[in-house]
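step: validate -> pass
step: tokenize input -> pass
step: predict -> running
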Amino acid sequence: MSDKDMSGAIFPNDYKEKESHPDMTGTIMVGGQKYAVSGWNNTAQKSGKQYIGLRFERWEDAMARREKTPAATGATIGAKQSGADYNEQTRGFDEDDIPF
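step: predict -> pass
step: emit ->
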């Protein structure tokens, strides 16, 4: 994925092991700052509509926390969402395909 500002992508978390782990993970670039994105599939209690709850964390903070707790890899960022593996997974992704 490029470092195009105000864009990003999330992917299914192939490393989800617990209900508390996110269903999706990825990155977004805002104002030149890279953020890790975690998303959980949820259902609204009143309406029953499905939605995705999101959490953003500065990329550097997410990587530092991940290094401290390697067993919690899926807790915020799956292994495919970092380094060369992330680039491999997003190869061929064109941000112009995003409809917003």
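step: describe -> The mean pLDDT is 78.
step: cleanup -> pass
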